[in-house]
Amino acid sequence: MNNVAEENFRPVHQILTRRRAGILLHITSLPGPGVVGDLGRDAYHFVDFLVSSGVSVWQILPIGPTMHDNSPYQSSSVYAGNPRLISLELPLQKGWLEAIPESEDVLSDAVKSYAIKLAWEGFKERADKGDRDDYQRFVAEQKHWLEDYVLFQALHQEEGGCWWEWHTTLRDREPQAIAETRARFTETIDVIRFEQYLFFTEWMNLKHYANERGVLLFGDLPIFVAHDSAEVWAHREFFDLLEDGHPRVVAGVPPDYFSETGQRWGNPLYCWERLEADDVSFWIERLRAQSTLFDFLRIDHFRGFEAYWEIPAEEKTAVNGRWVEAPGERLFEQLYTDLPDLELVAEDLGVITPEVDALRKAYHLPGMKILQFAFSGGSDNPYLPFHHTRDSVVYTGTHDNDTTLGWYRGLDDGTREFVDNYLGKPREAMPWPLIRTALASRANLAVIPFQDVLGLDGAHRMNTPGTTEGNWDWRFDWDQIKHGTTERLLRSIKMYGR
């Protein structure tokens, strides 16, 4: 990468110019009646908990529709919301849904989907003019992605399989085949479109509630796009694909702290020349959309904007890949030209070179400091608190780490003794000594995974990178919040000026 020109430097982010404390908790981890948490009353209750605790940032994982493994980092759309997160409270309140169909104690995804179909029928029959106008406005404003998405999902429901397995006329989006399919699946498409209207209405209601009470929503944007997604199907020219739709090469990371064989994510890589020829409009529209849903965003795998790990598609692991330079400077220059108020945080973990660091600093993107990574390698370890800078976000751990209690218990005796000595041999039990260290850091934003606030062990971990089983399904229960937790958080946050 060339040295970033001085004139490209941006003002410091506005949101992170003051000290704040945040909690990391995905929507799916909330309590509630469904198989995952949703945007209903428990989400509002959690905002109230944050306010009472002095927390002003709620960090959330990506919210797009998930696939078979429920990973929020592999979504069938970069724009759409996950229908599993929809609460039935809104359509019940509006009178579009008369009652939730009978089910077991837990509201299943199938029952929720059926209820949304009933709500669509009720909406057509009973919605007032204001709601009808609001729906039509949503459809018109989101048309640039919504119509591809609803057709893509309808084809998945009616035809099955991945898009590159469809009949070539649909795979290659021949106009006549697309028009005929839209006509054939009109009813299914209408329900999916309404489903997205419900999601976005509920999301913006929750965001308004949080913002009114001083809580900012901190989102997460995966750098890559899932192969079997509406955007790859609709915009194949922007991705490095073969003629039959299969990827030539795929994304991942080389062997690292998390995995000896690296991580083969399997996402298709971008055709950056085509993106640049189109003034990176794909990225601009994606960021524009996400910026309406969140107050600021973390870009996952930021180092991939300077150079990305390219793995031949036929390889089973990420070992035999290579670094390929990416036009990050050109991308961010255009992003901030079109979206000057964009607020981003860089996930700068992994193999970080001076060039990656220069790109991040050129656009004043705060980086991440993970305390669980701090206690190895000696005093020059960049994650040790005395190396933190104000333009950072400090975490005890992230969704990819063990809980702090699980991490601490898993340390060898020597490392555990070093941690204890570094932290001054505190009398408090883990994880609170590490929580206090995060809150005391010079970093202007300190984020604590909610599992750590609850003092939970490794059985409550959210994700183990490099594995495909048992991830993304952790949920908490309100009775896990011990008496005095709110007050303890509030005192600590005030003590450390957050």
From TrEMBL:
InterPro entries: GH, Glyco_hydro_77
BP terms from Gene Ontology: carbohydrate metabolic process
Keywords (A to Z) from UniProt: Carbohydrate metabolism, Glycosyltransferase, Transferase
EC numbers on record: 2.4.1.25
Pfam families hit by this protein: Glyco_hydro_77 (PF02446)
Gene Ontology MF annotations: 4-alpha-glucanotransferase activity
Catalytic reactions of this protein: Transfers a segment of a (1->4)-alpha-D-glucan to a new position in an acceptor, which may be glucose or a (1->4)-alpha-D-glucan
NCBIfam families linked: malQ, PRK14508.1-3
Membership in a protein family: Belongs to the disproportionating enzyme family.
Record's protein name: 4-alpha-glucanotransferase
Lineage of the organism: Bacteria, Pseudomonadati, Pseudomonadota, Gammaproteobacteria, Chromatiales
